[in-house]
Structure of VWFA domain-containing protein:
Amino acid sequence: MEGGERIEDLKLILSRVAEIATLFDDDGILVRFMNSNVEGNGIRSAADAAALLTKASRRAGAAAGVTFGGTTPLAASMHSRVLQGVVLPAAARGALAKPVLVISITDGEPTDTPKDAILQARARAGARVIRDARARLAPQYGPRPIAFQFAQVGRDARAQAFLSKLDQDPGVGDIIDCTSYFELEAEEFARKGVNLSVEAWLLKLMVGAIDPSYDAEDEGPQRR
């Protein structure tokens, strides 16, 4: 079933991101979940990522546990758990030593109200998301202080359409990249005569939001 495949894809992406990121930053990565208070700090390897997910799954019966399913409060969780919870406090302390890369792994269309709340300066619930985060960080850290990668697992067509909209937003699209599930990305590259390997797909996932040349690789006519 695709649901099981999505979970395995999520685990694969998280483990590979942890391994690759540690090549550039000895501190490892921070992990936050949309629907849970479980946190992972200093995740440096595939083993660390697997241990975090195992620990989180064991707590799934409790209020703070992680369950793979439910709603997708993308804007709300980005605001509370990532920006307000980590990035903006660090910026206020002058503790951001390098630009921040936020990687969101999701399988569904957002359930925020409105659905494009993550693009707005202020969502209905008062959440300041991508536009506002950039505006607040830029005076101290320059025009590209933060970048956002949205990685899709599964084949949900509405999720794909939403992520494509994010990628091409005229206001903040330059700091956003959206990477579809491997098979769809491979189709996009094949139209240009390029055979996409899993390794190249993971590389795009890691640097697409930072390097515009990677972001543009899969933006064929159907995604413009």
Remarks:
- The longest helix spans residues 2-24.
- The beta strands are 29-32, 39-43, 100-106, 146-152, 176-179.
- Residues 72-217 form one domain.
